[in-house]
Automatic annotation (TrEMBL):
One of its GO terms (cellular component) is TIM23 mitochondrial import inner membrane translocase complex. This is Mitochondrial import inner membrane translocase subunit TIM23. It comes from Aquilegia coerulea. Pfam families: Tim17. It is a multi-pass membrane protein.
Length: 204
């Protein structure tokens, strides 16, 4: 009798609680009586913030690289780009320059020499352009009281091209400046179009 009464009382107490079920994040959104609604699986990632968190408000207000980081970024990235493109071009030239009767060792040596020579040439040229662009952009942003926008990048591109070809005459400097300005504007446009799409899936 005691066992039956205790079991009946425990059943009554358990009836006061809502039914339990294991949590499954892959179930669709559904509302179960007496249970909180579950989040749909496709919205699980959207609830996680991918934006950087800052300790102080001053850090959140200034979201750009320092002058040293800016110069290092442009110099290194353009040097690496030039080395890769130049290495590929030199490799193709080495392959095309193969002669009948050359041994495999001579062919490989010619390809490596051509790839390294053209890769160094392109890498040094683009590295100098990146250094000039980083210095000029940092100076222009400082002169404009920290305004880091499209105008600063375009002015830096114009100045970089003009400085790079200044020794070749005014016409060459003007043409190089125009090309640099257009290249900077195109790079900023691509960045503004691509980076927001990447940030949706990759925390940057």
């Amino acid at each position: 009798m005691e066992n039956s009464s205790s079991s009946s009382s425990s059943n009554q107490n358990n009836s006061n609680y809502p039914p339990r079920r294991p949590y499954n994040p892959y179930n669709p959104y559904e509302v179960v009586p007496n249970l909180p609604p579950y989040l749909p699986s496709e919205n699980l990632y959207s609830t996680i913030s991918t934006q950087p968190e800052y300790l102080f408000h001053e850090e959140a207000a200034v979201q750009r690289r320092t002058w040293g980081e800016n110069i290092q970024y442009y110099t290194g990235s353009l040097y690496l780009t030039g080395a890769i493109l130049g290495g590929a071009k030199g490799t193709m030239e080495g392959i095309m320059a193969a002669e009948r009767g050359d041994t495999t060792k001579i062919k490989v040596n010619r390809i490596l020499n051509a790839g390294g020579h053209v890769g160094r040439k392109y890498g040094n040229s683009l590295g100098v352009l990146g250094f000039l662009f980083g210095v000029l952009e940092t100076g222009i942003i400082y002169a404009r009281d920290g305004k880091d926008d499209l105008s600063s990048s375009v002015l830096a591109g114009l100045s970089t091209g003009a400085f790079y070809k200044a020794a070749s005459g005014p016409r060459s400097a003007a043409l190089a400046g125009a090309i640099g300005g257009l290249a900077a504007a195109g790079a900023v446009a691509v960045k503004q179009a691509v980076v927001p799409a990447i940030k949706r899936y990759v925390p940057i």
